[in-house]
TrEMBL record:
<keyword id="KW-0408">Iron</keyword>
<dbReference type="InterPro" id="IPR017896">
    <property type="entry name" value="4Fe4S_Fe-S-bd"/>
</dbReference>
<dbReference type="GO" id="GO:0046872">
    <property type="term" value="F:metal ion binding"/>
</dbReference>
<feature type="domain" description="4Fe-4S ferredoxin-type">
    <location>
        <begin position="79"/>
        <end position="108"/>
    </location>
</feature>
<feature type="domain" description="4Fe-4S ferredoxin-type">
    <location>
        <begin position="40"/>
        <end position="69"/>
    </location>
</feature>
<dbReference type="GO" id="GO:0016020">
    <property type="term" value="C:membrane"/>
</dbReference>
<dbReference type="GO" id="GO:0051539">
    <property type="term" value="F:4 iron, 4 sulfur cluster binding"/>
</dbReference>
<keyword id="KW-0479">Metal-binding</keyword>
<dbReference type="InterPro" id="IPR017900">
    <property type="entry name" value="4Fe4S_Fe_S_CS"/>
</dbReference>
<dbReference type="InterPro" id="IPR010226">
    <property type="entry name" value="NADH_quinone_OxRdtase_chainI"/>
</dbReference>
<protein>
    <submittedName>
        <fullName>NADH-quinone oxidoreductase subunit I</fullName>
    </submittedName>
</protein>
<dbReference type="GO" id="GO:0016651">
    <property type="term" value="F:oxidoreductase activity, acting on NAD(P)H"/>
</dbReference>
<keyword id="KW-0004">4Fe-4S</keyword>
<dbReference type="Pfam" id="PF12838">
    <property type="entry name" value="Fer4_7"/>
</dbReference>
<keyword id="KW-0411">Iron-sulfur</keyword>
Length: 160
């Protein structure tokens, strides 16, 4: 029969025409990424990191550059943690190698930049910013300022 293929194609077209549309208005609405999404940039939790360097050693392209130092207690800590996202294969080896699960992928899939140097991400600085912002938000929530938590300090609360 000659029209059988045409009728099947029209049936599929009409069925999809009357289905609910799933279009997102991109700049205003963002697509929610699943939990197993591999991409974006590395998100470091500097408080969990023990500066072992296993993530940098596991990376096949050597895109993670970290330096360590010693703190007051003679304990090893991070001094810099730079991730070059332009060279990354998104293989997930660095995350699997981390013994404390201090690094993970963020869910941001918009990682286009104008210049190649902008693809280098200072993960330690971003982690410190997130921690400081979280502390400031917590202090604002409790009604105290972050700098005047000492009793009797100017601008702080005193026990009168």
């Amino acid at each position: 029969m000659l029209g059988k293929g045409l009728l099947k194609g029209m049936r599929i077209t009409l069925r999809s025409f009357f289905c609910k549309k799933v279009t997102l208005q991109y700049p205003d609405e963002k697509l929610a990424m699943p939990a197993r999404f591999r991409g974006g940039e590395l998100e470091l939790d500097h408080q969990k990191c023990i500066a072992c360097g296993l993530c940098a050693m596991a990376c096949p392209n050597r895109v993670i550059k970290l330096t360590t130092g010693a703190n007051e207690q003679k304990k090893r800590c991070l001094t810099s943690y730079v991730y070059q996202s332009g060279l990354c294969l998104y293989c997930n080896y660095c995350i699997e190698a981390c013994p404390t699960k201090a690094i993970c992928w963020d869910k941001n899939y918009e990682n286009a930049r104008y210049f190649r140097k902008e693809l280098d991400v200072d993960c330690l600085a971003l982690s410190l910013e997130r921690t400081a912002a979280g502390a400031a938000e917590e202090a604002a929530f409790t009604g105290k300022t972050a700098t005047a938590e000492v009793e009797g300090a100017p601008g702080g609360r005193s026990a009168e």
